[in-house]
Amino acid sequence: MTKQEIERSILQQLLYGADADKLPLSRFKRIQSPGFWSIFRSLYIVTGLLALWHVFHKRAVIFDGSYFKPFDLTNWLDISVAAFALIFLWSAIHHFYVASFGVSLKSISLKDIEIRPSSEDQDSILNRHLDEIVYFFQSTRYDLVIVEDLDRFEDSDIFVTLREINSLVNGNVGVRRRVRFLYALRDDMFVNTDRTKFFEFIIPVVPIINSSNSIDMVLAQGKRLELDGRLNQQFLREVSRYLSDLRLIYNIFNEYAIYVANLETDGENVLDATKLLAVLIYKNVYPRDFERLHRGEGHLAEILGRKDELIAKREQSYRSEIAEHERSIETAEQEIAKNLRELRRIYAMALFETLPANTTGVGRTAQEHIALNTLSEREDIEQFITAPTLYCHIPNAGRRQHNNAAFQKSVAFELSYAERVRSIEHKADAYRKAAHRRIAHLRSEVKAVRTSKFNVLLRSSTQEVESLFENLGDGGQLARFLLLEGHLDDSYYQYTSLFHSGRLSPSDNKFLIQIRAFHTPDPLFPIDNPSEVIAGMREDDFGLDYALNVRLVDALLERKEHEERLEKVFAYLSNEFPNQQEFFEAYYATGSHVSEFLMQLVDAWRGFVPATIEGISATLHIARLIEHLPPAMLAREREEHPELCEFVADNLRDILDLLEGGDPVKLEELRIEANDLAAIAGYPNVARKLYELGHYSLNSANFDYIFGSILGEEVGPALRKRHYSRVRNSGAEPLLNRVDDDFATYFANVLLGLDDDNEEDIDAILAVMSHDELDTEEIETFVLRQTKLLPSLEEVPERYRAVVVRGAQIAPTWSNCLAFIRAETFESSALTTFLDDDEVRATLLETQLPDAKEALPLLQFLINAEDLGDEAYRAYVQALPTKFKKFPGSISPRKRRILIDERRVTFDAQNLAALDGEVDLQTLFVARNIASYLRDPSSFSIDDDFRERLLTADITSDEKLAIISLMDLSSLPSLPERASIVGPILLRTNGAIPSLAPDIVKAVIVNAKPVGTQVQLLNLLHETLDKSEVREVLGQLPDPYSKIQTGYARPLLRRTNENSELVRWLEARDIISSVGTPLWSSDIIVYLYRS
């Protein structure tokens, strides 16, 4: 405001503060209200005017004097009228005369001339109208003028003017009292000591309110209006820091009381009292911006109008982060390196291929030398990969620079080494699980962002509206607090007008306008009065997507009168289900009656469950069904749609991520079989409940989780090696019941799948074999890989005895063998396989075979075990406690040979005859029992040909000599082969046979081999021959022996013992002349007789 405007305001407040009757001469005219005496005044005026008219009408007689005649009481009426007219005329003239004192001439305007008084040019209005001010104090009885609030105009000159006026008033003769001016202003209006010189008396005022005690004033207003119970005390404490004007606080709470009394909502107090107070605070602190808000203008309107923009940015932020996590997981899955060490080796090998030939080391500087074979083990290998230049160390060539700038891209063009390191780290299960949890959380945030409160959206993007706050007074601190704390948001309109029930809000009206324009609003479009919106919609609209609004569906569900409309909504959803996923997601997230909605939808549309399973949002739908449907309905859906259980089991982790609270009881009625309990480790209460109910698949992963996380026992190899034993020994009744109820599945999925399950307890093995429903071949696979042997065949089920025996899974004892032979399922091949095992044989032979009569079947099996390996058969035959009386008829010659070798068949003529046709076995049989034969050779029908074979058998030389003595040797001259056999035997036994004739001797010597043997036999048997026969024999020997005859020859023999003996007896019998030794050697020279 200008100084003139301030002075005009002061003058107006001063003059217009007094009654107009008290300032009749003031030039400032005011409207006067007629009082009680105005009736009489108006009657006086009318009467006076009538009197004047009468006098004017009688003017002629008045002027000639006849009017007053007679001048007595008889003419009182005419005289009185004339007198009254005269008095009225005087009073009128007097009134106009007095009124003329208040008339001022401001200007006279002619054609080209305007005359103004000089006072019109004065700047000060107070000075210009100083006479009015003096007149005011002369005409009134005021003696104190209070001046306040002038300090806010920051103009101290006005105080100088007021001080001068105060002095003039007090110095005026017409003012007979002292008038004082009292000023209320801030200390800083005058600098330093000026104020003490200016004012006569100064009274300091202690401030009533400031930011530190404003809370007390605010609370006091709450108590005054009895609002303490409705208002949030914390909000009052916080907002009071921004309110430091007591009048402002009074005004805010007075308006609050008025608004509360007028805001009606069907008699229900549904409006937030704190938000209403926030709106009124904003209204009073920022009145101009609040006024513009009604027209959709101003800073607050612009901030609230950015809600859609903030939502879009928030959604984009979430989706970008989801995409980043998904790319990270995908990149990690594509990474071929299993760990960082392998990745370093890949890059080290690739770098080695790019280096010059014969490079032994590299360095980042010329001084550094890193051996190539250690490069892959260095943690700082990335520095070598990214270095633009490397220094290669080459023997005999020194250091050489190598351009390495393009190396990293040559290995992997799209990803750097650091990115591949992160990919490997992201392959870890912990990161993957965390990433999946984060993605699930972000997707839920995307769905919920449109229902987020405005302050939440605003906090995430304060920079977007920062400039709008700055344009408000006080830098927008109060507005910032109200908006960011959620006390002021886009629901402000409910608090700024009389919002009576039954009226459409702007948002409701906008919704109806859009559907009439054939535009489908968003499912989360805000509707404030759904009942009024429903009333404004056509019946056909409920069979279209117009009715798919969260608030509308909630309203339809709340009242039974809308059942037909709901049926139309459900019919539309069943027909357009794939295209309405946005509505379902919105309603699941923000609907107030999700349970009722799903129950009615499932009843109205019996194909809802199959349709959801086939849809793109199947996990979300099934999660909401589990969460909101009652157990009975879930059980019904499970029975009618078996695929429901399978889907839940396959997607349990994702479903639990969507379930509110993860209540395991909600899964009980589905009777699912969770495929991977470890995948829901983040929901331990659910995993434990499924374990207790037995609702999980029987697989190794689930058992690992149960033992490790629920039972708290050791897993890994300790569990895998004896899985069923650990289950039986766990003592966990839910686990035992689950396994026993579906043992076939447990056996097929777990026990058979664990190749290292080979250390089961005996009881566990026998328990598995007791299940008749299992496949025999699978049982055999399981049993045969166990390392523990079953101690007793009697405990093994009959149908598996052959299996355990064949697989050598039974303890190797003679009693088990005998028990198997007696079993109904006895298989000779199985027992043969068992006995043929080296370890089994070694163990069995450590104990003696039973000799009791009961063991005869075992002994018979052993001796008749044709399919046993020869080595095993021989070992068992050796262990037989007794001999058998005859050869088994079903065994092969090899086995009979073993029986003969081990002397396990009685030697008699009958058994020998049983071997007819098998000359070798007969010969062996006699040879192995030669002593028995020699004791009574006549009991056996054996000829010289047989005896000849015995001579070649493995018997002693004496026994052979005894056999020779039983032979007819006269045929030896004609049987050179037999003679060649007999000769060596005679040599070894010194030829102690008296019946040797010269022909026999000659045949024996001549057919013997080699020459040395012939010489030895001749030395042994020469006495049987005469000289001529000796020379005959010598003549048949090889040279030089054949030359020892008569004549001039001198045979030369090598000096050996037999040759020395030969020449000795030849010389003694005078068959040769003499012997000698040549000078050049040690040989023997034989001198012959010449005739």
Automatic annotation (TrEMBL):
<dbReference type="Pfam" id="PF20693">
    <property type="entry name" value="YobI-ATPase"/>
</dbReference>
<feature type="transmembrane region" description="Helical">
    <location>
        <begin position="76"/>
        <end position="97"/>
    </location>
</feature>
<feature type="transmembrane region" description="Helical">
    <location>
        <begin position="35"/>
        <end position="56"/>
    </location>
</feature>
<keyword id="KW-1133">Transmembrane helix</keyword>
<keyword id="KW-0812">Transmembrane</keyword>
<protein>
    <recommendedName>
        <fullName>YobI-like P-loop NTPase domain-containing protein</fullName>
    </recommendedName>
</protein>
<keyword id="KW-0175">Coiled coil</keyword>
<feature type="domain" description="YobI-like P-loop NTPase">
    <location>
        <begin position="3"/>
        <end position="300"/>
    </location>
</feature>
<dbReference type="InterPro" id="IPR048428">
    <property type="entry name" value="YobI-NTPase"/>
</dbReference>
<feature type="coiled-coil region">
    <location>
        <begin position="315"/>
        <end position="342"/>
    </location>
</feature>
<keyword id="KW-0472">Membrane</keyword>
